[in-house]
Amino acid sequence: ASVSEPAQKCCTENIQPFLTSILEELMGPVSSGFMEVRSLFDQEVNEIIQDFQKTNDMTRLKENVDQLMTLPFNSVKMEPCYVKVNLLHELLQDLKNRFKVYHIDFVIQRTQNFMQELMENAVYTFEQLFSPSRQADSAKVATTIEKVKLRVLK
Q1: 18-36 per-position pLDDT tens digit
Q2: One Pfam family from the UniProt entry (predicted)?
């Protein structure tokens, strides 16, 4: 009871007024990283479509979709997504000094883990939605892939 009132006053005066601006500042790199994940998924599926349109090879299409399933674990391809979030390191340094925020690396790592998880969910959903269409007419496959991609991105 004796700590509650001073603690509330401290939060109200010294922290709460800054929360909105802090959140906006942190969301820039986070949003940028998640947009990069979206862009990477879009790009990879577009490459699958283009390859299929050139070859019309269903076996190769299956191999390409199987390879897409490994995308979340491909550190080279995911790196541009992770780099966007590394900007948090600089932003959080300022917060560390002002508000005694520690474990900056943990915040960045968790954000990158969420990005990988998002990609895992995207490729899994793509594979699940596209899987029944693999036996379809090969003339419609590219269109089906595009529709599935748009559905996943939605």
Answers
A1: 788 778 878 888 999 999 9
A2: Niban2
Inter-residue contact 112 to 12 (CB < 8 Å): no
Q: Is the pLDDT of residue 128 over 90?
A: yes
Distance CA 92, CA 29 (A): 11
Cα 74 from Cα 92, distance rounded (Å):
27
* pLDDT (0 to 100) of residue 110: 92
Contact assessment for residue 48 and residue 146, using Cβ atoms and an 8 Å cutoff: no
Angle, CA of 140, 144 and 149, to the nearest 5°: 155
- Between the two ends of the chain, the Cα-to-Cα distance in Å is 49
Residue 97 has pLDDT above 80, yes or no: no
CA–CA dist 140, 134 (Å, integer): 10
Query: Cα separations (Å) of 66 from 70, 83, 87, 134?
Result: 7, 26, 32, 13
